[in-house]
User: Which sequence fits this backbone?
């Protein structure tokens, strides 16, 4: 069965956490809104459907036959075992889900660094507030979140190459994406990242070197980061005057 | 086995979504930080533990023997089947998890209505920004989220008494709490709630009338809403001049 991923076209956004899992597994999937003849209309048709009982609140969502799965953490929890990217041990799987939900919260904060007041307004209309929020985000939140993941890596009883157990999971792939995005958006705040978070830096390198991930990153399927997505590079939010 | 819930004392907060499930099921549980002789130190000892591999990022978290489960949605996904508060059908359970994660996002936005700039600062230090964010929250986000849940209720193929299937689930309990909290925090914005969201209003009434929930709400275990929690009543954020 071909998986159908539904997400906004033109940005990596939250959809990228799902794409990385599907790409690493070599899955057969369709990125629906980028398909000629389908596009964003096909996604909105499901969100606004009168016939579908299990409508999602927002993208991304996945269709696996009749099953609709919404929210990144839910999609990855669902896909993980099917793609061979989840711990086999149930207890570790619950821990992995908690880590993924911490990433969810972190991503929401990353988004709000450039949209602290209103989702419906442009960044330019909330620039002063974004500067204030980003200052807190850079000095307090980035170190808190990355410090947490670094501690979990260092504590992993199976060794610190992976965040859970001794094999690659969707959480490793998501942490790669978070690091990649933060380096794009906040290069100044992240400049001593390797020294401060050596375990995460190694994990980032390990994921980037996976053959299928490397091929994906070099392909046209991987869109570039841009200022419509979640990770946006605005120098003034990175502490440049 | 007695469940141990760890959360900040003195507020309902995110812990309340877990308490409602444990109370409805008549579970044997300990609210650890409210226990004489344990308190918040017992919670911080786990978060800062050097011995524990599966440290949580933040409260609430649940201990079930050696298993630590963090994040509300993860805790409820874990507890649901054990407490008889999850759909038996796997497909519905995935849908329920997606709904719970939509509630997670909504709760984060409710929190940020009074903390749009910095978690580390007081409300009074971000009052102007809170007013701007709350205006958007009241006029755009409350109707969007409640409208979504209302549509899901109305579409439920098993009838609209419950949000998923034909029996009470943790998602119903969480929706009760969201409605209860919004009515406390934004009474003005919520004044025509019953007319606009009739299905949600009926669900709120159904949950409030459950004997164990009614007993819990009348007990000293249910703390009152207050201005240290997530749902805060600041008249100026509710559109009063």
Assistant:
């Amino acid at each position: 069965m071909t998986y159908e991923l539904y997400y906004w076209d033109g940005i990596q956004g939250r959809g990228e956490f799902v794409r990385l899992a599907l790409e690493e597994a070599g899955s057969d999937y369709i990125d629906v809104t980028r398909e000629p003849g389908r596009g964003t209309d096909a996604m909105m048709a499901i969100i606004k459907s009168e016939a579908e009982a299990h409508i999602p609140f927002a993208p991304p969502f996945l269709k696996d036959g009749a099953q609709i799965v919404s929210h990144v953490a839910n999609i990855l929890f669902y896909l993980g075992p099917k793609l061979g990217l989840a711990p086999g041990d149930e207890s570790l799987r619950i821990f992995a889900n908690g880590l993924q939900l911490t990433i969810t919260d972190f991503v929401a904060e990353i988004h709000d660094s450039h949209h602290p007041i209103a989702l419906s307004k442009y960044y330019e209309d909330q620039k002063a507030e974004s500067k204030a929020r980003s200052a807190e985000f850079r000095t307090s939140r980035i170190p808190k979140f990355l410090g947490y993941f670094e501690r979990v890596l260092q504590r992993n009883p199976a060794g610190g190459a992976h965040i859970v157990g001794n094999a690659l999971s969707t959480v490793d792939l998501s942490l790669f994406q978070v690091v990649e995005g933060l380096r794009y958006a906040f290069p100044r705040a992240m400049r001593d990242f390797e020294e401060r978070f050596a375990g995460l830096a190694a994990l980032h390198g390990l994921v980037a070197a996976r053959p299928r991930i490397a091929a994906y990153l070099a392909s046209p399927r991987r869109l570039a980061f841009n200022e419509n997505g979640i990770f946006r590079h605005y120098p003034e939010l990175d502490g440049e005057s």
